[in-house]
UniProtKB/TrEMBL annotation:
Signal peptide (from-to): none
Domain ERCC4: 125-205
Organism of origin: Tessaracoccus lubricantis
Name recorded for this polypeptide: ERCC4 domain-containing protein
Domain of life, source organism: Bacteria
Pfam annotation, one family: ERCC4
Gene3D superfamilies recorded: 3.40.50.10130
């Protein structure tokens, strides 16, 4: 798998062509061969890759993955190895930028909404598991809730009928109990099958070492082992119930936005193939 960069045979202010190996290949016109000093503006070529292009660089890739509105690439070399092609909207028209960690602090494509809302989403609805006792009400957040049986977890968000993310809520005592009985491992295995999931603890990590009815070091070790075995499901300590609820609100909102952007971006990238 390679990222091919060739000279644009046409007389253009974007003198290079890039062939991004996604699907049948996405051909973009670009201003430079790598985003070193600043973001590079790109434009759809609108034509197939030339039959006999003048290749400037052929970069072997370790990975090339579409994540939401961005296509992330990793070049097989020690320096200048990671970058992204990001598709966004500005003044009603599509814009594509090629950027690296050095050339941008944060990329937030397709978002220009009030920051008070979770990820700028106006109509956000969370599902609360029917078995959840003393459920979060989200009275301070701009979100509605509906009761339903979740396949796993306590709170979740759907996008077009599919689970985008789930939160498993735990008190410290519940966390310690599920660790020592082995129940948490089975729950983590189920959570790991979802696109995004997290175990959210309504307490501080330091509180583990104040536990009286179980050896604190055992709980800490078992928790670490679970994180090694299931790294895709982080365990977050949110200090208290109020902050845990706010963290879940932001997490589920971000997951919903990412899923929505991913669908929209997939359609735009498909148009470039």
């Amino acid at each position: 798998m390679e990222l091919l960069i060739a000279r644009n045979p046409e007389d253009s202010s974007l003198p290079y062509l890039v062939l991004v190996p996604i699907g049948e290949g996405i051909v973009l016109r670009v201003k430079d061969t790598w985003p070193r000093a600043s973001k590079i503006y790109c434009h759809r070529h609108g034509l197939p890759w030339p039959e006999n292009p003048e290749i400037v660089e052929s970069l072997p890739l370790r990975s090339c993955v579409q994540r939401g509105a961005a296509i992330s690439i990793e070049v097989d070399r020690a320096r200048e190895s990671r970058s992204q092609f990001v598709i966004t909207q500005a003044r009603g028209r599509e814009m594509i930028f090629w950027q690296s960690a050095r050339t941008t602090k944060a990329a937030r494509p397709n978002v220009a909404l009030p920051t008070a809302r979770a990820s700028g989403l106006a109509d956000l609805q969370f599902s609360v598991d029917t078995r959840e006792r003393y459920a979060w009400k989200f009275t301070q957040q701009q979100v509605s809730t509906v009761k339903e049986a979740l396949p796993v977890g306590d709170y979740g968000v759907k996008v077009h009928g599919e689970w985008a993310a789930v939160v498993e809520r735990k008190s410290l005592e519940d966390l310690a109990g599920s660790l020592t009985t082995g129940k948490l491992r089975f729950r983590l295995e189920a959570l790991a099958e979802l696109p995004r999931a997290v175990v959210l603890v309504e307490d501080r990590y330091s509180s583990i070492f104040k536990l009286k009815h179980v050896r604190p070091a055992l709980v800490a070790d078992m928790l670490a082992e679970c994180q090694i075995r299931y790294p895709q499901v982080p365990v977050i300590f949110a200090e208290n119930r109020t902050l845990a609820q706010e963290w879940a609100f932001r997490f589920l909102g971000a997951a919903a936005r990412e899923a929505l952007e991913g669908e929209a971006a997939a359609e735009r990238w498909a148009a470039a193939e």
